[in-house]
DNA sequence: AATTCCGGAGAACAGTTGTTAACTGGATGA
DNA sequence: TCATCCAGTTAACAACTGTTCTCCGGAATT
């Protein structure tokens, strides 16, 4: 049952999205704690006071951006990790590479604000990453290699993988930021990331020795 | 041959250090790209224009902070990694834990600005971390387990360790930031970090299989 | 002893910031 | 049809920003 929005609410969501888009663009060259309210409204093309109709503060906007950047990514990560065998690493690296290429500003925002100067945003990102770790852990538990593993150890391993994914995403980003983004450079990062994940997987296989 | 500084240069270095200290304190609750020049001078207790006698801009000050935070850490990391056997991981975790406890603001600054909004600072941090990776790689090469390893693979492993150290440092930091910092919480982080490093070491031992 | 140097102070500049209050006009619901 | 709602506007506020130029007084140099 999809409820058709009134033309009023539709317009509101439209300008709200315009706020998110404009902020994300501005955040490519600064961090959230220096993002001004007027700066955003100027970029959108509305009066400064219009901002308050959508967000309490720029920190509030930042939390909304976290949801936009990570919210829809959970199913993708889940199905990718669900892949069995050696293919899993290949697909994971490709997922990251493609996602960074498709949404570089989102990735930059998350990497930047994960340890940034705005507490509510840091917390929102931390919660989302913890969710990723739990989901990855749940998928890893289905592997035959997970036999004999404690819940704690599985979560430790899952966090290792999630952190590694974020580091890899950040490296792909630097690849795009370089003055002459070359496919060769991207491939180099992909190969290093794959080898690091393979090394971690090897450690996992011999954990119970 | 230690050259005694004139009372003029000595005074200059003193206020310069005051700038660094004040900035570091202010950066506990914001990021560098929102740090104002007047804000810093006000905290130091000097006129705004005095700032220019020491730094071109706040970005310049940030680069100086990177050197202060990471510059003197290289020998410590080197000797810690030089430790052989199972003791290496224990010492590494303790080094990180102690360093975070002793210089929390420095660690926070590095974690925050590594992906922050100020390019020159990002580059300075990236260069320093690359140096750490090279040094760690050089120490790892001395291990008997390094036999048959390519230069590339050693560097890949070293980067994995360095990134892992930074993640661990950041987790120790969160431990201190909690409303009621408990020794139990710190110990929990230490145990997880040690297990993650042990898992990586296991992967290393079976890499050439 | 006389001169140069230079870290810091003071005042002023135009431009920016977040937030408030009162208002407008088209969509909404009775 | 008419009263209500509400996203966005306009105007104004005090407070703040980075930067320039001019000046001072003590250290450094000759």
Automatic annotation (TrEMBL), chains A, B:
Pfam family, one: TetR_N
Top-rank taxon, per record: Bacteria
DNA-binding region(s), chain positions: 36-55
GO MF annotations, alphabetized: DNA binding
Domain HTH tetR-type: 13-73
PROSITE patterns in the cross-refs: HTH_TETR_2
Keyword Magnesium: no
UniProtKB keywords: DNA-binding
PANTHER family named among the record's database cross-references: HTH-TYPE TRANSCRIPTIONAL REPRESSOR FABR
This protein's name: Transcriptional regulator
Organism placement in taxonomy: Bacteria, Bacillati, Actinomycetota, Actinomycetes, Kitasatosporales
């Amino acid at each position: 049952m999809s409820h058709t929005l009134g033309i009023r609410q539709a317009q509101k969501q439209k300008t709200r999205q315009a706020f998110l888009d404009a902020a994300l663009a501005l955040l490519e060259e600064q961090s959230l704690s220096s993002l001004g309210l007027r700066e955003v409204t100027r970029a959108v093309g509305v009066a400064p006071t219009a901002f308050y109709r959508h967000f309490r503060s720029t920190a509030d906007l930042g939390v909304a951006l976290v949801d936009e950047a990570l919210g829809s990514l959970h199913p993708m990560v889940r199905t990718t990790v669900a892949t069995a065998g050696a293919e899993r690493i290949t697909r994971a690296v490709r997922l990251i590479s493609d996602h960074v290429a498709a949404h570089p500003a989102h990735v930059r925002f998350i990497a930047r604000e994960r340890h940034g100067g705005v507490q509510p945003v840091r917390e929102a990102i931390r919660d989302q990453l913890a969710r990723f770790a739990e989901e990855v852990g749940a998928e890893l538990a289905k592997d035959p290699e997970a036999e004999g593993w404690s819940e704690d150890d599985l979560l430790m391993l899952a966090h290792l993988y999630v952190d590694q994914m974020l580091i890899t995403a950040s490296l792909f980003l630097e690849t795009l930021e370089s003055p002459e983004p070359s496919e060769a450079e991207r491939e180099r990062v992909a190969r290093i990331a794959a080898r690091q994940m393979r090394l971690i997987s090897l450690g996992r296989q011999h954990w119970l020795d």
